[in-house]
Amino acid sequence: MRGSQVKRIFALALLGTLLGVSVPVLQGQAPQRPTGNVENGKKQFAARGCVSCHSYSGQGGAGARLAQNPITFQTFVSYVRKPKGTMPPFGNQIPEAELADIYAYIKSVPPSPDPKTIPLLNQID
């Protein structure tokens, strides 16, 4: 009986050590998301009507600014499927792979230039 208790304690200690090492590593990993196609995402962004509220480059307008928004892919998908604002819900009408393409397009949009670097704006008093 004593030998089985030692084995049990050893097994629990080993399990605890493995969990202690692996949990921080797992917490640091980003959730996996499908790789999106930027060109297809740009086409879908226009075809799905996103441009009517978010503009062609996702800079916003009637809808929120999407370009340079630090939201995660999962947050993006959740919001498109069940938005909390005035955006119409898309539910499952758009496949996740297509959403990955749209997300890739939005993430590919370069930041707007600093207004101080635009010569015409510097001429305004």
Short account of what is shown:
By secondary structure, the protein is mostly helical. It has helices spanning 2-27, 38-47, 51-54, 73-81, 96-108, 119-122. α2 packs across α5.
SSE diagram, text form:
Layout lengths: L1 H26 L10 H10 L3 H4 L18 H9 L14 H13 L10 H4 L3
Helix pairs in contact: 2-5
Description of the molecule:
This protein is mostly helical and 125 residues long. It has a domain at 38-108: Cytochrome c-like domain (Cytochrome Bc1 Complex, Chain D, domain 2), CATH 1.10.760. Helices cover 53% and strands 0% of the residues. The protein is built from 6 helices and no strands. It has helices at residues 2-27, 38-47, 51-54, 73-81, 96-108, 119-122. Helix 2 packs across helix 5. The longest helix is centred in the N-terminal third of the chain and has 26 residues, at 2-27. The chain starts with a helix and ends with a helix.
